[in-house]
Amino acid sequence: MRQPMVLGNWKMNGRLSEIKLLLDTLKQHRHIMAERSAVLPPSIYLPLVAHELENTGISWGAQNIHACSEGAFTGEISAPMLLDYHCRYVLVGHSERRQLFHEDDKFIAEKFHQVKEHGMIPVLCVGETWAEREQGLTQQVIKKQIQSIEKGCTRPYLNCIIAYEPIWAIGTGKTASPDIAQEVHAFIRQVVSENNADDARALTILYGGSVNAKNASDLFAMPDVDGGLVGGASLIGAQFVEIVQCISSYC
Ligand code: PGA
Prior knowledge:
This protein is an alpha/beta fold. It has twelve helices and eight strands.
C-alpha cells in the first residue's frame, strides 16, 4: 500500500540540547505527526530518539548502514545494531554518500538488501546532477540507479521506498517544479512496473530537494508524489510539522 509520508533527514546536524528541543516540538504535535512521519537522526542520537518517540506513533530510522551484519569495519553500524533501537527506515544511496563517500551502485544494492533482510524499510535515493539533466540523461541515470537493486532478487520493490532527489535541488533552495517531480516520479513507477506492476502501484515514492513549508503542498498534490524526504527544513520543528500537515489530506 502506498503510504503518504514525510521523512526528516537531519544529516550531520544538531547537538544534544537542540535535538531534545526538536523532539519536544514533534511530540507536542504527535496527533499530526503519528503514522505519517519519521526522523533520521545522526546515529549517535538513535537511543535518545528511540526513547523519546516510543509510543508516539512517530517513526525513526538511520541515515546509513553497512552491508555486512558484523565484523572488522571500523566506524560502521550494522542492521542488527539498528534493530536494537527499533529503526524502521534506513536511507541507502543518498547522493552525499554516492558523491562524498564514493558509494557505487553495487555497494548500495548490498546495503539495500541488508536492510530488507533485517525487516526494515530501505529508502533508495536516486537523482541526477544538473549537467546530466541538461544533457537529457535524467531517465537513463535514474533507471540505472533503480535497476541496480534488482539483481538476484524476485520482488526487489516489495516493502521499500524510493526517493527522487535531484542533486541540483539538494540544499540549494532550488526545488524541482511539481511538474518536473511528477514526470520523474511517473517514470520511476514505470521502471518499477517493468519488474512487477503490483509493486509499482504500491510503491511509495518521495520527493526530496529543498522541500519546505511553502512548496510542500504543491509537490504533494502531484499524483505520483507520495510525500517528501526533507533535509534542512526538518531541523526546524514547527516547519517540519507544517510539512507533515501538508501530507495529511492524502492519508
Ligand atoms: P534538503 O535535503 O531538503 O536540505 O535539500 C534533502 C536531502 O538531502 O535529503
